[in-house]
């Protein structure tokens, strides 16, 4: 589980309100069973490279069915032998600061 | 408050463990008083363009003092007249799906 | 000139063809006099932090005039005392590989 | 060839000079035969989703062999039926502006 991947995927040809399409992706992510956390700017997945990439690919295939132009940003943080990065990264910062942060 | 800005800022010359430097930025963000949410891959700020950019700039100035190489990713979502995007974007997706998501 | 900043800025509410809006930004960049290089996915600026950020801000103000939703990605690479990063970074890779690459 | 993918992949545990590792990726990209363009902040690939993702994955596997922490940014622009996006996107902006830009 050494990969954290955050991504956001948006159609460019559907006007300014795109939550319908984002919801479809979140449905795919939920069904995948992969550990994830949604934030206001994207979704963070945790797993091995091939696992997290497969989820992103499935979201892309879902969106491509009725969208002619799609923009997608992906950011990956690989750390050898890391475990439970979805929680441990934030824990580590809070510990250093000695206080809880807004999450 | 029409801008949501997510950013992550990391030194490249300090080895693989960088939470000391991230903590310094979080301290700056907390002190700024700006609405924010930390996630495992970055921090999302909400405000007007100049307000959120000022916070990022202050974090950069803090990190630059003892880091020779810094990498920074910023993603901005501007939506005219949006209010409380830190919560409303997630609410809107959960409403469409009719269930709570992991955040 | 220690900052390289790549950015792309796109309206989400104008349909799939957005080169009209990108052109407006490129016009602003050209007029700023800042060193830059356009590529198929964004524009790389070189300068000090405040200089490059000012250009991005001016592009945002230009786009905001008639766009209700804007998405912007920025990636920054700061390296202390670097000079002419627009050319030196590629030179350094080509030198290591001992051959010219496609740019 | 409807996908343009720009990526940059950097080790975080190798100090501030990382061109040795970037060169390794460029070697992989060259050998893949995929159309690409290197810029000072990343490399843009053109192909179908699976083709471009495969190249990124191979670069990751190469870097993982001796790097304990890796950061990777990917930006994708899918446009249905687009052809030769590596050149056509820039051409389209230059045409709108009626002048050549710096590339």
Kindly list the characteristics that best describe this protein.
homotetramer, 103 residues, alpha+beta, four-stranded antiparallel beta sheet, 29% strand
Explained architecture:
4 copies of one chain form a homotetramer. With 103 residues, the first copy, chain A, is an alpha+beta fold. The first copy, chain A, is 42% helix and 29% strand. The first copy, chain A, contains 3 helices and 4 strands. In chain A, strands 2-3-1-4 form a 4-stranded antiparallel beta sheet, covered by helices on one side. In chain A, a hairpin with a 2-residue loop joins β2 (36-39) and β3 (42-47). In chain A, α1 runs antiparallel to α2. Chain A is globular, with a radius of gyration of 15 Å. The first copy, chain A, starts with a strand and ends in a 6-residue tail after the last helix. Chains in contact: A-B, A-C, A-D, B-C, B-D, C-D. The interface between A and D is medium-sized, with 19 and 19 residues.
List the topology elements:
Four copies of one chain form a homotetramer.
Chain A: E1 3-11, H1 19-32, E2 36-39, E3 42-47, H2 49-64, E4 69-79, H3 85-97
Antiparallel strand pairs in A: 1-3, 1-4, 2-3
Helix pairs in contact in A: 1-2
């Amino acid at each position: 589980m050494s990969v954290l991947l955050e991504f956001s995927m948006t159609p460019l040809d559907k006007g300014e309100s795109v939550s319908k399409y984002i919801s479809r992706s979140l449905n795919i992510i939920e069904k995948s069973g992969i550990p994830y956390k949604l934030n206001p700017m994207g979704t963070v997945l945790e797993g091995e490279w091939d696992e997290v990439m497969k989820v992103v690919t499935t979201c892309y295939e879902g969106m491509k069915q009725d969208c002619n132009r799609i923009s997608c940003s992906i950011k990956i943080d690989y750390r050898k032998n890391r475990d439970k990065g979805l929680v441990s990264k934030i824990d580590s910062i809070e510990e250093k600061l000695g206080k809880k942060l807004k999450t």
